[in-house]
Design goal:
Layout: H1 20-42, E1 56-62, H2 74-80, E2 84-89, E3 95-101, H3 115-132, E4 136-142, E5 155-160, H4 163-174, H5 189-199, E6 205-210, H6 219-228, E7 230-237, E8 249-253, E9 260-264, H7 268-292, E10 295-300, H8 305-317, E11 334-335
Parallel strand pairs: 3-4, 3-6, 6-7, 7-10, 10-11
Antiparallel strand pairs: 1-2, 4-5, 8-9
Amino acid sequence: MSKKPPEPASAAVDTLPTLPGKADRLLRELEWKVIRRLDGLLQGDYRTLMRGSGLDLADLREYQPHDEVRHIDWNVTARLNAPHVRVFMEDREMTAWFLLDLSPSINFGPQGHAKRDILTGFVAVLARLLTRHGNRVGAMLYGGSSHQGERAVDAVLPPRSSRAHVLHLVHLLLAPEAAPADAGAATELHRLLQTGVANLRRRATVFVVSDFISAPGWEKPLAELAQRHDVVALRLLDPLELTLPDLGLITLRDAESGEQLHVDTHDTAFRRRFARLAAEREAALREGLARAGADTLELCTDDDLVDALLRFMDLRRHRVRAPRSGTPLAAAPVASAA
């Protein structure tokens, strides 16, 4: 008798992983050290975390370049001979989705402060802040290894609003990552984004958390997400990805492919070439994020978590939204780690 095939990992997760102690300790520590500090600094004002799409008319005001054309009130515009838009009361009980890139490259960084650690802390705090105010959060996790076959994501956590649900998410983020079945397979971030485009039907706030070290093709699905949803790209990075210090002869290992390369960092010309190529990649990445129309926040491995969250709040407070059709009038702002 043949065995029943296992359930696909992309199915909704229904059982808790086996890391209750570690996940609970981390969440309690974040609640005590980070959320309490934010409560004092922001005085409970978390209105900029998510933007609703309510239907109750609140006011009329003159059109501004970043306003959506579909909100223009043509009767008032004709009467006053100047374009005016309707302003609606926002529905604060929204759903947030975290699209999380857990591919091998996010394990890069100093011990205890790798990109994966920054991702875990930021997502845990943000999810807890949202659920404390009645919003629901869900998550899609992408591991980046080719053993997935036709599966676009490794796990889907349906949206809920309890602390236990956030703890469940932290469990998943702390679970030991599986070794890639096929070393050398590039991360295909577009698979995660396309899953979001296909499955997120109702308007939501979508946080795409990744280092964007990926095969090409992620810009188009990210733009499609930004057309339908309020999208924030949280980009993870480490300073050593931008410049190499003078450390002598070292071995560099590609986290995605496993390939190793011995380099001499005493060589000034080599360090300059590395910095130049890194700068070119940075420019191309930022241009792709701006074209997609998503707000962008950079999270560095040497960041203080509270400072990063305050930068995020400031980004949301001063965000500039482009129209949903045609050429953007203004690029989405990038809040850097500096």
